[in-house]
Amino acid sequence: MIPALATLLVFQLLGEVIVLATDAPVPGPVVGLALLLATLALRPAWLDAIKPTAQGLLQHLSLLFVPAGVGVMQHLQRLGDEALAIGVALVVSTLVGLAVSAWTMVWLMRRQARREGGSP
């Protein structure tokens, strides 16, 4: 378990280093995860060594939300004071996300129809 956990942390560290070196607008752990994916695609035997540890971490992923819950409880008064702004931001961002997703889907469907020779 320790070697697998160390492997996961090394890939996260590599991602952080790459992001810091390139000033990329992507979180380091995401880059590390992409590197891990590429490594596992090239060396599938590593999957058997990492899989049990990764599954154990995923089973207890909900524990990572405890600090966020404590933070919400500590700032409950402020959240109440700014409830309208937070609510509007949530609704507007949800609607914008849905609109952009729908527009992207329509664009992709039209593009695929053109490639197949038909028109939408």
TrEMBL record:
Superkingdom of this protein's organism: Bacteria
One term under GO cellular component: plasma membrane
Pfam families associated with the record: LrgA
Keyword match Transmembrane helix: yes
Topology with respect to the bilayer: Multi-pass membrane protein
Subcellular location(s) per record: Cell membrane
Ranges annotated as spanning the membrane: 31-50, 57-77, 83-108
Keywords: Cell membrane, Membrane, Transmembrane, Transmembrane helix
Protein name: LrgA family protein
